[in-house]
Task: inverse folding
């Protein structure tokens, strides 16, 4: 938030993620865990709209909805990791995403986005839309791409689910309230 100059971050759990297999827990349970994980930060909000929908959770449709909510003049920024960004051209109506929001790509320090490793169509969009300064995010409501280094923790959702499934501790990898919720609802356990 500080690096990009964002006033808030809205977390939007996918109700029906089209790029993944069937989630192990319900959309409502995932929503509740995100609410608990973000509750202590007043600059975070959680949007349940995708969880309440039976339609596939396509990012472009979410951004269309947010653009209607916030109007055409307010800058919106979609935050994605470098790995997700590398697959952006496989997303539903991916090119339309730029009509609704900027895209901010986080990468590990010392490992910037390599244009040569991107699919050709995405590489071309990256070259055309790249913003060299994060302040440029405020000059237009959508359309730019900015990349930024972010120290990432070696924590993955897959790793956490595997630990829990095998009866091992995931302490310090998730907030205690989320771990308590997972335990009390017997989530992610092997049958």
Result:
């Amino acid at each position: 938030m500080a690096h990009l100059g964002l006033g808030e971050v809205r977390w939007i759990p996918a109700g029906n993620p089209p790029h993944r297999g069937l989630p192990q827990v319900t959309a409502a349970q995932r929503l509740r865990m995100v609410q608990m994980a973000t509750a202590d930060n007043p600059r975070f909000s959680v949007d349940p709209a995708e969880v309440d929908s039976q339609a596939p959770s396509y990012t472009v449709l979410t951004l269309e909805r947010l653009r209607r909510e916030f109007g055409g003049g307010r800058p919106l920024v979609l935050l994605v990791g470098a790995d997700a960004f590398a697959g952006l051209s496989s997303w539903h109506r991916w090119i339309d995403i730029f009509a609704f929001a900027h895209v901010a790509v986080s990468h590990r320090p010392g490992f910037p986005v390599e244009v040569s490793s991107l699919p050709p169509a995405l590489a071309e969009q990256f070259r055309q839309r790249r913003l060299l300064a994060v302040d440029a995010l405020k000059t237009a409501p959508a359309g730019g791409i900015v990349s930024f280094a972010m120290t990432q923790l070696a924590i993955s959702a897959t790793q956490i689910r595997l630990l829990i499934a095998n009866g091992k501790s995931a302490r310090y990898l998730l907030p205690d309230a989320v771990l308590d919720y997972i335990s009390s609802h017997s989530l992610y356990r092997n049958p």
